[in-house]
Amino acid sequence: MLFRPLYQIPNWLQRFYAGAVWRRDTAVYLTFDDGPIPEVTPEILKILREKGAKATFFVVGDNVRKFPYLLDQIIAEGHRVGNHTFHHLPGWKTSLAEYMRDVSACDELLRQHAGRDLRPLLRPPYGRIRHSQCRELQNAGYEIILWDVLTHDYNSRYSADKLLQIVQQFTRPGSIVVFHDSLKSGERMLETLPKAIDWWRENGYELKTL
């Protein structure tokens, strides 16, 4: 058995992030962080298309700046997008003013592509965010999305089989599951993703966007 706190944040710790969302209702919410990038994003989209599944992509603004056509493709195929800051900033090491400027820069790009009625979602990089940043973001209308299952797909010591084991052991009704749309995660994540989608469906889970 896997050690739960590495993959599923304990409820007592979640309370330190007042107002953040860790789980929702009874569906599974598949999410991807850190993209979009041409080496991985199109392959994710191909799998999701073939499986008839939707996901939420928390994108880095600088990647959107470099590869705007990938964000357009994500949106055109019916997926949700959220803010992952412009420069993938660690909130614990960043001043409030700098953090908010970086979030706003990413948000401006997202709204150019997704429209002004975009509901603002934000996932803090590394899950690290200060209370002052949380308050400021929530006052500005952002919904802060964290996670219920962290797959560790970025860890080169983990096999695709272990990623699938994490999904199977820790998914529960309402789970928000994190994969990464990155070079570091790509090979393991892409091998795991279709198997995870099949397993969720075989076990009665509906896949929704946030």
Order of helices and strands: HEHEHHEHEHEEHEHE
Q: Briefly note the structural class of the backbone.
A: alpha/beta
Helical stretch tally: 8
* Percent range for β-strand residues: 5-15%
In short:
It is built from 8 helices and 8 strands; from the N terminus they run αβαβααβαβαββαβαβ. With 210 residues, the chain is of the alpha/beta class.
SSE topology:
Elements: H1 11-14, E1 28-33, H2 41-51, E2 56-59, H3 61-66, H4 68-76, E3 80-83, H5 96-114, E4 121-122, H6 131-139, E5 143-144, E6 149-150, H7 160-170, E7 176-180, H8 186-202, E8 207-208
Highlighted features:
13% strand, 210 residues, 8 helices
If you had to describe this structure to a student in words, what would you say it looks like?
- The protein is α/β, with parallel strands linked by helices.
- Helix 2 (41-51) links the parallel strand 1 and strand 2 (56-59).
- It has helices at residues 11-14, 41-51, 61-66, 68-76, 96-114, 131-139, 160-170, 186-202; strands at 28-33, 56-59, 80-83, 121-122, 143-144, 149-150, 176-180, 207-208.
- The radius of gyration is 16 Å and the shape is globular.
